[in-house]
Design a protein that fits this description.
Layout (H helix, E strand, L loop, with lengths): L3 E3 L6 H17 L12 H10 L2 E6 L2 E9 L18 E9 L8 H15 L4 E7 L3 H9 L3 E8 L2 E9 L1
Parallel strand pairs: 4-5
Antiparallel strand pairs: 1-2, 2-3, 3-4, 5-7, 6-7
Helix pairs in contact: 1-2
């Protein structure tokens, strides 16, 4: 795949929201009840864009994945036994792959993009969380070297909090 990554503009909120709607429907068909019409919503997407955190991955002009990267995390992250608690880190949020492109290495490629950008900025760790009812996400992150270091219970259930040293 020849994926290009860029930051979207605010006028792309609806297109990106529709991408998440398709991803949510596909996840629910697979029995993964991680997201719904409450989250992620268009306000979350717009806030990500305005903060400069949202990234879209495209191939031949087609939206194939989205994710946000920043240093913001839920309060539950504070209680985790981070391996390098005082080192700079980034947090990945809402990685969503267009269902037509699943099992083609898109998510892995997106995470490699995050890792390479972090390394260029001198960042030593990547943090994220994944829904315990999403075995696909958990397997992906584990295969990429992420380790479970804690758990959180949010509106949709139990989530693994994960970290990778780079």
């Amino acid at each position: 795949m020849n994926v290009t990554y860029r930051k979207p503009t605010i006028d792309e909120v609806f297109k990106i929201y529709q991408h998440y709607v398709r991803v949510i429907a596909s996840m629910q068909e697979m029995g993964i009840d991680q997201w719904d019409d409450l989250y992620p919503n268009s306000a979350v997407i717009a806030a990500d864009i305005e903060a400069g955190d949202l990234i879209v991955g495209e191939e031949d002009g087609k939206l194939i994945c989205t994710f946000a990267v920043n240093t913001e995390c839920e309060e539950d992250y504070d209680a985790c036994p981070w391996q390098y608690p005082s080192e700079p880190y980034v947090v990945v949020h809402r990685l969503a792959v267009n269902p037509k492109y699943r099992r083609q290495g898109v998510a892995k490629n997106a995470m490699e993009f995050v890792e390479n950008n972090a390394k260029e900025k001198g960042i030593r760790t990547i943090r994220l969380d994944t829904f315990c009812g999403n075995p696909v996400g958990a397997a992906l992150y584990e295969s990429l070297g992420f380790k479970v270091i804690g758990f959180a219970h949010w509106r949709k259930g139990k989530f693994q909090i994960m970290e990778k040293i780079i």
